[in-house]
Amino acid sequence: MNPATRYLSRGLDRALAVLRRISSAGVWVGGGLLTVLALATGAEVLSRRLLSHSLGGIDELGGYTLAVVGAVAMTEALLNRAHIRIGVLHGRLGRRGQSVLDLVSLGALMAFFGIVLWFGWALLARNYGLGTRSMTPLATPLWIPQALWVLAFAVFWLVAVALLLRSCIGVAEGDWETVNELIGLRETEDEVADGRAIAEHAASVPGTGPDRSR
């Protein structure tokens, strides 16, 4: 690997590390928002049932929350290779062919969401300029949830670009292992390792492990 390529690889690795931290923070915030939404929905149901009164706006805010959290989760799924892919052709190819196919798939994904991001930004700019509000009792300025949604997709697109560039370097250098770790299909061993890590974490939390008191 020549010095320029090595420098670029290290820069992309650092960028991906930062993006991973941003994605992880977004997932935690999204999880918190979903928890609040679940509690608010429960309170709404009880209020309607027991008091014949609606808190109002829960369904609208819930829709915004799900849209933004879904976009945030896509970045985490991309970084962890958790998107569902059909590997009929993938499994019949050698390591080099698999890496090239992974690059093509990621490039297509990046191109598609580049279009989504473009039109999302145009919609955001239009609604911000017009001061558009939702036609609900809350009259929410639509640019607020749309800005969060576009921001989440922008992070997703940046992650896709960084992964594509880093993987292209890996292909050029014949580093198939790195390419597979970044954008390849998850193997059975990866799934088992993740399951084991989740089980070990659950066992370490008081009250969630096996009951050994008997």
TrEMBL record:
Keyword vocabulary terms for this entry: Cell inner membrane, Cell membrane, Membrane, Transmembrane, Transmembrane helix, Transport
Q: How does it sit in the membrane?
A: Multi-pass membrane protein
Cell location = Cell inner membrane
Tripartite ATP-independent periplasmic transporters DctQ component domain ranges (all copies) = 38-166
Q: Which Pfam families match?
A: DctQ
List where the protein spans the membrane. 21-41, 61-79, 100-123, 143-165
Keyword set includes Transmembrane:
yes
GO MF terms, alphabetically ordered: transmembrane transporter activity
The processes (GO biological process) annotated in the record are: C4-dicarboxylate transport
The highest taxon in the source lineage is Bacteria
Its Gene Ontology cellular component terms are: plasma membrane
UniProt record similarity statement: Belongs to the TRAP transporter small permease family.
Q: How does it assemble?
A: The complex comprises the extracytoplasmic solute receptor protein and the two transmembrane proteins.
Function statement: Part of the tripartite ATP-independent periplasmic (TRAP) transport system.
Write the protein's name: TRAP transporter small permease protein
Naturally occurring in which organism (per UniProt): Palleronia aestuarii
Taxonomic path: Bacteria, Pseudomonadati, Pseudomonadota, Alphaproteobacteria, Rhodobacterales
